[in-house]
Design brief:
The chain is α+β, with helices and mostly antiparallel strands. Helices cover 26% and strands 33% of the residues. The protein has 9 helices and 21 strands. It has helices at 45-53, 95-105, 110-124, 139-151, 169-186, 197-203, 221-226, 231-236, 271-280, and strands at 6-14, 20-29, 34-38, 60-65, 68-69, 80-83, 157-161, 189-194, 206-211, 214-219, 243-250, 256-259, 266-268, 285-289, 294-297, 307-317, 322-328, 331-337, 348-353, 359-362, 367-368. Helix 2 (95-105) crosses helix 3, helix 2 packs parallel to helix 4 (139-151) and helix 3 crosses helix 4.
């Protein structure tokens, strides 16, 4: 499979009414890399994908595919293939005919078309449905056909626009595995758009988090999870979301974070955190803690200096774990706990937070300190 590097340099999209959909995106997708654009509705991710595909024009910047500038190149000459959310299959054609259609337009020899279609069908596990019409297929099979139609073209770049959003939860999990497996077999360059952060974390070599037309952060799934650079990334990546508590950094005595609404809710600062917060000298800070970094202790334990008091709002048993929704420092918090722990609503518990696992943000700039 041929591959190509995709480079966006200062790419902007401004519509005639003045609305800026994409604000100067800089991104390089290397040969054979799987990059996921993720963000909420209106973040500009699909517009960016459509710019790469040639379905939207650039207002500024430069786009290159395989070292060739394609700003003004029509979509059919960019050597890309796109898989849409709606499948976009021809209802009057069989699966075989749907997959072969673009190759017939390119006037390839019939034996080559047949070989490509059957090879793609084998990769996707749809050999047995080649003679069926789309209406005779399940949602997962239709999505495989849409992917197969892209594979047979042997493009340099695959573009996916929320391809799993029409599937039910169980089928989405199955198709994520299928897409990951297909990608390994093809070693293809892929740009993939989704609003589902779990999908992004599962599939992407790197993830581009977008918000309101801007890139918030680019990194591997674990980089984004462990080292979010902005408050938006901290709350968007991870499920349940990171807990956020507003407060101040106090250096009177042992350095500590103190919650604004409840001075009894305080967390010691590590030497590194003390150095960074003192240098930044923000008037206020926001502490961020992942649910798995909050250890829940029974009230029978003696409260130590690192423990905080909280009241249980509700417990959500999930089989392999329990999510505990708590109230502390006049804030709603979420903690992960072992499956055997199931506290009752209204019960008072003790929380233990590892200071080294706390993230600190400047609320004025919305960035990590």
């Amino acid at each position: 499979m041929r591959m190509a590097r995709v480079t966006l340099d200062g790419v902007r999209k401004v519509y005639d009414n003045g609305f800026v959909a994409v604000h100067g995106v800089d991104l390089t997708v290397d040969d054979g890399e799987f990059v996921v654009l993720v963000g909420p509705s209106g973040s500009g991710k699909s517009t960016t994908l459509r710019i790469i595909a040639g379905l939207e024009s650039l207002s500024a910047g430069q786009l290159t595919i395989g070292g060739r500038m394609v700003n003004d190149v029509p979509p059919n000459e960019r050597d890309i293939a796109m898989v849409f959310q709606s499948y976009a299959l021809y209802p009057h054609m069989s699966v075989y005919e749907n997959m072969a259609f673009a190759l017939h337009l390119r006037k390839l020899p019939r034996n080559e078309i047949d070989a490509r279609v059957r090879e793609a069908a084998q990769i996707l596990g749809i050999t047995g449905v080649l003679e069926r019409r789309p209406r005779q297929l399940s949602g997962g099979q239709r999505q495989r056909v849409a992917i197969g139609r892209a594979i047979v073209r042997q493009p340099r770049v695959f573009l996916f626009d929320e391809p799993l959003s029409n599937l039910d939860a169980k089928l989405r999990v199955q198709m994520r595995r299928e897409i990951a497996r297909i990608r390994r077999e093809l070693s293809a360059t892929v740009v993939y758009v989704t609003h589902d952060q779990v999908e992004a974390m599962t599939l992407g070599d790197r993830i581009v988090v977008m918000n309101e037309g801007r890139v918030e952060q680019i990194g591997s799934p674990l980089e984004l999870y462990d080292h979010p650079q902005t408050l938006f990334v901290a709350t968007f990546i991870g499920s349940p979301a990171m807990n956020l508590v507003e407060g101040t950094a106090s250096f009177d005595g042992p350095p500590r974070f103190v919650a604004t609404d409840d001075p009894s809710f305080s967390i010691p600062l590590t030497p590194d955190q003390t150095k960074r917060l003192a240098a930044a000298a923000p008037l206020r800070v926001v502490a961020g803690v992942r649910p798995e970094d909050i250890r829940v202790r029974p009230p029978s334990e003696s409260p130590g200096p690192q423990m905080l008091s909280a009241v249980v709002d509700a417990s959500e048993p999930l089989g392999n774990e329990v999510l505990i929704y708590l109230h502390a420092a006049r804030r709603d918090l979420t903690a992960r706990a072992a499956p055997h722990m199931l506290p009752r609503s209204g019960e008072r518990l003790l929380l233990e937070i590892d200071p080294a696992r706390v993230h600190y943000f400047d609320p004025a700039r919305g960035r990590s300190i």
